[in-house]
Amino acid sequence: MKLLHVDSSILGTYSSSRQLTAEVVAQWLKGHPDTTVEYLDVAANPIGHFGADALAIKGVAQAEPTEAQRAENALSEKLVSQFLAADVIVVGAPFYNFSIPTQLKAWIDRLAQPGRTFAYTDKGPTGLATGKTVIVASTRGGAYSTSDGGQAMEHQESYLKVVFGFFGITDVRIVRAEGLAMGDAAKAAAMSAAQTEISCAAV
User: To the nearest whole number, what is the mean pLDDT of the chain?
Assistant: First the structure.
């Protein structure tokens, strides 16, 4: 079994999402000691944002690719192959400006490849990356899950569920710690609740 561990927080050792993904992976390894872990830090090693030189993955022909296009194509191939080879993907997803970090979005943009992670059919798109488990460590400074207004402002967990579902992944598990910026007591309670969720999610 292969596990891909992805972190995206820009906060380094101060990051709550990094703490939670590490705990998710550790808990998973307890139950699945034969798992091979590969680590990807898209904040420390940012992936270039999707641009014109990377359009080949969308089926745009590049008869004589430039050096820049070859480099972009190679990067996209490396990332999608790594993703497709994983049975389990653990994603650290902090809440930035109502959504996910741009670094994490850049990674997802490289994965969204017709013929690799999804396909268009006469009945609409269908996911090709089936049979995987995704565990998202979701961290938020405020509380967004407890009210209609908060849920309307949330484009983090909802986006990740949609995009991984579009890839054909139906097993998306959320470990959430929110209210982290609402005082020490709220943060401690949120992290404790998330650790309890980890024991259920990472099995």
Answer: 95
* The pair of three-digit structure tokens given for residue 74, joined into one six-digit string: 């190679």
Sheet with 36-41: strands ordered across: 36-41, 2-7, 88-94, 133-140, 171-178
End-to-end CA distance of the chain: 13
Q: Computed over its alpha carbons, how large is the radius of gyration of the chain?
A: 18
DSSP conformation class of 47: P
Cβ neighbours around 85 below 10 Å, total: 11
CB contact at 8 A, 80 and 111:
yes
- 80 CB contacts (<8 Å, ≥6 apart)? 57, 110, 111, 113, 116, 117
pLDDT of residue 3: 98
Exposed e or buried b per residue across 8-31, where buried means at least 16 C-beta atoms within 10 angstroms of its C-beta: bbeeeeebbbbbbbbbbbebbeee
Pairwise CA distance, residues 109 & 111, whole Å: 5
SS3 of 120, please?
strand
Name the band, by pLDDT with cuts 50, 70 and 90, for residue 108: very high
Q: Treating both helix axes as pointing N-terminal to C-terminal, what angle do 184-201 and 16-31 enclose, rounded to 10 degrees? A: 30
pTM surpassing 0.90?
yes
